[in-house]
Each structure stands twice: as structure tokens, then as C-alpha cells.
Inverse folding.
């Protein structure tokens, strides 16, 4: 059953110097894949299980994934750099009507 | 600086001399000058940069890159009001960079740091709808010669229900299958009304809609 919300663990990062997109960007990081952060292994999540993750588990993984990406992209603060409408977890009753 | 030379000249002409023939003649005469002027405008920033760069600055930029792996751009400001502007392109430790600059090059001369204009933007993509499993209660009833298993909602795939039946003489393990989109499965056998039946497992074939409880 849809809950009226949608979620993502895939982030696209763009880095610009003087307004010019730097070589190699945008970079896309996939938080459903296995990653290692804070002395903890976050194992891969099958795509079919991802929609059913509990909200608590999803929030925990999102927080770890965010910190992991920020550790790779030195200087990036995701909360400050995210563009309008690009949030990870958001209401969307159009795409995901409660049913 | 961009100037439309033809317009400038025609504006400078006395009003009664501004006819099209004269302006066209002037256009032909100044065409080469206009090309040179445009070339000058294009090259000017590069000439200014090269005029202010020197071997010691280039060497210092290279050395900082080699030692700290940080790109810097050192611009000679000729003491107006400081001597040099050190632009850090990316992220670098200013203390370490200062140490190198003071050691090798610009000691005794004033300089300030400026961070290069690095910006990040990001967005989460490929969203999926959040889903929640619905509880689907499975119950069973044993009557004489008949076991009936019922789910609260039509099942979303074939669901195998395992039942343990304790009779006076033995203990039987039986399975029933509730077909996809149905709510009931029935099994006939030789049961007595005093036999005790328990559902021990409910196993959906491929069902991502329900959380089966029993």
C-alpha cells in the first residue's frame, strides 16, 4: 500500500568552479549499494525491498549515506546544497496515491 | 570595451554631412582598424595577466601544487593596497600555504587569501513510492472431516498454509493453498471435532502487499 510519500537513496552531485561544471561531474552516488561508514557496513538493499523499508531504518541509512557522501565530496554540505524539490524523502500524493 | 565605430563616427559627423554614401565610404576606410580594435579587446585580458605574471609567481604556484596538491593563483597587485592576491582554487590549508609562500617567495610582502568560487549543488533522484505492508489475518476452523482456512483479504499470490493437527493417536502436518485473489482454502480428511489444529506457517509465493499474521 502506498503511503503518499516517496523516498530516494540516489544523489546527484554537481561541483562548479566559477560557475563552470568541473570535469567528472555530475557524480551519482547510489545509497542502496553497499557502503562502509562510521565503522559500520551498510549492506546492499534489493530494489524490491527498498520501498518497504521501515521509516526508521530508511532515516538511519539516509543519515549514514549523507555523511558518507559528504566525506567523499570535501566541502559539500548536502542540507545546504540541495536544490528545491530535490529532497530525499517527500510527500507525493500524485505519484504515490494512498491506496 | 566594445565600441561601434561606425555609429561613433557618424555621430561625430556634422549633421548635414551624414548621408549613407559618406558613411559607407568611412566604413570601408576603417574596416581594418575595426578588426584590429576587436582583436585588441579580445587579447587585452590575456596581455594583462601575462604582464603581471612572472617566473617567481609561476614557480611558487607550481611548488604549492606539488607540495600540497592545492591549486592557487597568485596575482600581482603592485601594492594596491597589498602586493599579492592568493586565490585558492578548491580547498587548502591557508597556514600551510602561507608557510610555503613565506619560505620561498613573498616574505616581507603583503598578501591576502581569497577562496576560489567553488559551489556544490545536489539533488536526490530516482524516487520510489514508500509502501507499507497491510496486515492480513489468516484463521482456520476444524470441523468434522473438514478444515477451512480463511484470510481477511484476498491473497495477492498463492499462499501455502501449514497446519498441525493433533489427533488422539498422532500428529499430522498438513498444507493448504489459498489461491491467488481468493480468501479460502478447504481440506477434507478424517478429523474428529475434538482434534486440535494449529496454523504453524503462512508462506506467500510472491506477495509484497500483505503482512500475514496468524
Amino acid at each position: 500500500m502506498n503511503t503518499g510519500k516517496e523516498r530516494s537513496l540516489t544523489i546527484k552531485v554537481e561541483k562548479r568552479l566559477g560557475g563552470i561544471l568541473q570535469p567528472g561531474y555530475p557524480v551519482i552516488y547510489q545509497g542502496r549499494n553497499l557502503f562502509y561508514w562510521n565503522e559500520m557496513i551498510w549492506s546492499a538493499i534489493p530494489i524490491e525491498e527498498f520501498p518497504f523499508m521501515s521509516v526508521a531504518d530508511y532515516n538511519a541509512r539516509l543519515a549514514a549515506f549523507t555523511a558518507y557522501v559528504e566525506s567523499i565530496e570535501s566541502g559539500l554540505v548536502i542540507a545546504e546544497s540541495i536544490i528545491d524539490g530535490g529532497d530525499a524523502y517527500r510527500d507525493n500524493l500524485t505519484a504515490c496515491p494512498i491506496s | 570595451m566594445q565600441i561601434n565605430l561606425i555609429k561613433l563616427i557618424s555621430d561625430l559627423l556634422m549633421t548635414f554631412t551624414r548621408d549613407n554614401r559618406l558613411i559607407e565610404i568611412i566604413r570601408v576606410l576603417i574596416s581594418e582598424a575595426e578588426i584590429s580594435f576587436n582583436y585588441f579587446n579580445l587579447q587585452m585580458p590575456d596581455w594583462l595577466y601575462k604582464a603581471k605574471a612572472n617566473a617567481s609567481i609561476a614557480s611558487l604556484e607550481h611548488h604549492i601544487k606539488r607540495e600540497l596538491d592545492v591549486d592557487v593563483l597568485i596575482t600581482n597587485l603592485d601594492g594596491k593596497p597589498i602586493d599579492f592576491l592568493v586565490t585558492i582554487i578548491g580547498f587548502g590549508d591557508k597556514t600551510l600555504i602561507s608557510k610555503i609562500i613565506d619560505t620561498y617567495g613573498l616574505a616581507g610582502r603583503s598578501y591576502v587569501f581569497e577562496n576560489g568560487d567553488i559551489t556544490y549543488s545536489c539533488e536526490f533522484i530516482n524516487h520510489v513510492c514508500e509502501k507499507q505492508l497491510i496486515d492480513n489475518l489468516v484463521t482456520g476452523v476444524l470441523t468434522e472431516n473438514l478444515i477451512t482456512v480463511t484470510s481477511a483479504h484476498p491473497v495477492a499470490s498463492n499462499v501455502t498454509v501449514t497446519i498441525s493437527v493433533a489427533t488422539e493417536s498422532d500428529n499430522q502436518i498438513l498444507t493448504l493453498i489459498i489461491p491467488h485473489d481468493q480468501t479460502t482454502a478447504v481440506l477434507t480428511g478424517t478429523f474428529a471435532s475434538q482434534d486440535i489444529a494449529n496454523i504453524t506457517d503462512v508462506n506467500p509465493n510472491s506477495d509484497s502487499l500483505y503482512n500475514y499474521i496468524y
In short: The interface with chain A takes residues 89-91, 116-134, 208-209 of chain B (CB under 8 Å). Chain B has three domains: 5-51, 53-115, 134-213.
